[in-house]
Amino acid sequence: MLVSAKEMLDKAKAGHYAVGQFNINNLEWTKAILLTAQECNSPVILGVSEGAGKYMTGYKTIVGMVNGMIEELGITVPVALHLDHGSYDHCYKCIEAGFSSVMFDGSHFSIEENVEKTKEIVAAAHAKGVSVEAEVGSIGGEEDGVVGAGECADPNECKAVADLGIDFLAAGIGNIHGKYPANWAGLSFETLDAIQQLTGDMPLVLHGGTGIPTEMIQKAISLGVAKINVNTECQLAFAAATREYIEAGKDQQGKGFDPRKLLAPGTEAIKATVKQKMEIFGSVGKA
Ligand code: 13P
Q1: Measured between alpha carbons, how far is 165 from 38 in angstroms, rounded to an integer?
Q2: Mean pLDDT in residue range 132-142
């Protein structure tokens, strides 16, 4: 059964570890992540961007697939199904469809409008036991066509949004989606520390988990980060393993590739990536 992400993240914050959010794009990614979470006895969050939601034909299909897999694979660790960087309308669609968690990304609105809309979404989500993540300060890089500059959030704005009844907060601290450029300045721990001082027990979220050095991840966890999002690293691992399989060209039998065999190496590569992240985040054995 899907659960809201609130309890697992409150526990992670109190226990000084982080739960991974791994984005899903299809059946193979979903299966790989669920099986790895079970093997590691770790809670997990499945992230769905609006683009991935559209690709998988819509939110109801995803809810059906994930619930079916949890039952048929015998998954007993806590699993949250979370809308990643949701617009106002899509948060409502996901709450209706049976997601257990949503992120409202109002970071491109003025702080006043972000506050108003966040309050409305919190009320609708909490009425159904769905957890809510809000964002302050845009996360840099490009994701699903949305380009952010990677600013540092204002700690006072973080406090204002944290007080709206949200369950966890994503704050820009110099992190970006995708690969980090060679001249990246690193995470601003000063900003993170100031945000945590003002927001207290609120679990903080680090987007752009790909390519951040392990020591920085651990320092961020020590300063209140309890959820870390990873997408690009799974994508790179999946693509490399699939490319290698195609280039080896053994499986053609005159009729192309068997699709199940073709996607198997990529699925294994995602499992290895997710396991490594869960070890670094400290969530292994925490289910
Ligand atoms: P990466 O693309 O850096 O893995 O970040 C993913 C993310 O933050 C999804 O919201």
Answers
A1: 31
A2: 82
